[in-house]
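Sequence only, no structure available. Ideas?
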Amino acid sequence: MALAEPRLAIATPRPREGLAEVIARQGTAFWIVAALLLVMPLIASPFWLVQILAYAMILGMIALSLMFLAGYGGIVSLIQMTVAAFAAYLVAIFGESAITQISLKWPWWTAVPVAILLATLFGTLGGALSVRTEGIYTIMITLAIGSAFYYLTLQNYTIFNGFSGFNGVMPPVFLGIDWGGTVPFYYLTLGFAALAYAVVVYVSRAPFGLALQGTRDNPRRMAALGFDVVAHRIAAYAFAAVIAAFAGVLLVWYQRQVSPGTGGVGPVVDMLIIAVVGGLSRPIGPFIGALVYVLLRTFALDLLDWVGLEGKRYQLLIGFGFLVIVLFSPDGLIGIWQRLRERYRKSREAQDAQMRTGGGAP
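Reply:
I predicted one. Tokens follow.
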């Protein structure tokens, strides 16, 4: 009898539970956070809206695409940041930028869909190359694809403008709204992040998502039942690539530029760190990890200066923070939250049982 492969710590969703039911049973904390995000422009400064929250949501979308592959498919892929960077480059190449000798100056409503389509195709092809491997081999193949893309953009000046990349890539003006403004861009990012989250939740409970989780748990048994394991995994890469491509478009509009460093080895590994720290068991995990990453990256330098250490060591502080989180909780911050909730629930149950038996009476 074939042994089942080790599975990730993830709660398999109920097969008959739809998105509406999932949203309806969300706890009070979910709705408080949702309401807070909606009114955030009224209480937060432009710096916090764009540099912290919007940036965290963009990185969270890219990490969410990685979480979908790893959490539901058991596929640890490092190609997601590369897909986002490729989409960002295509927006600059097909659309408008300050590099007028290369950019084709297509209208945004043409450049963006073509960029997303080609980036999705790129992510799908990358997945097709690595889908028959597992574990460290998948990581190495996808990392090799990311490294190859980095050096291609670094050395190619005809299409990618080499080391300098593209700058002056501005968000569009649509429906009379300048989406590059602080509040419009925040809501644009929030809308796409919420949509990506909702779609991942829905797909995870759809027949495709359930079959993908079956291929994660026991691919041999799924193949014996008539499921095409390879096709499901390639489709998962394509779905994840769509999310990463949308995030790449938002990323180039946020940064107003794209360069080889956007898809370098460092950012590629950062996506894995964000997903793992946030937690691979729930779609909200990557967004939590991204927020922690952005906060540490933004304020670690000030913290080190405050305690009298050299500012160049801020990356050490970031790495130490992630190391502590992972050591205390292999399932990231989501795992810590779930354990605290479980401990609180058991404590309440014990108190209720004591009261029912009269143990709490004076």
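Residues 21 and 202 are 10 Å apart (CA to CA).
Hope that gets you unstuck.
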